[in-house]
Amino acid sequence: MLGNPIPTAFHVSTRGEYGMRLMVELARSWGRGTVSLHAIAEREDLPEAYLEQLVAALRKAGLVTGKRGAGGGYLLAREPAGITAGDVVRALEGPIEPQICTAEGDPVVNCVRQQDCGTHEVWAKLQKSIATALDSMTLAELVMTKRPALATT
Length: 153
Hints:
Elements: H1 14-28, H2 37-44, H3 48-60, E1 64-67, E2 73-76, H4 85-93, H5 120-135, H6 139-142
Antiparallel strand pairs: 1-2
Helix pairs in contact: 1-2, 1-3, 1-4, 4-5
């Protein structure tokens, strides 16, 4: 029996998936004004209340800004070419760490097997590959589909 996975190990949850979909929709509307979460929720078939939670984390990370009141909504804090998938994932999921022993950017200090571990290199290479892939994709590249932008306010 393998037991439970380490809770701090990296995996993309619905938080990361839905947040990425939210950010791609905001990128589609870049330069056209704010977009309501209601419009994104309807278009992407996502729960609006959950998007509100996600946008709070994305605002805290400096990736989106919001406008209240009539004509309110959200927009990217900077141009889509300046925001990577890695930025979004880290804002919503935390550091990219496929195993506890591969802390992003930090030396490993919490594994008693580190010095003699035969698998550490596997996890370190995986962490680097995932981070490199996510950091190489911008929102501008992800919106290069034929799907039109949402109406803005």
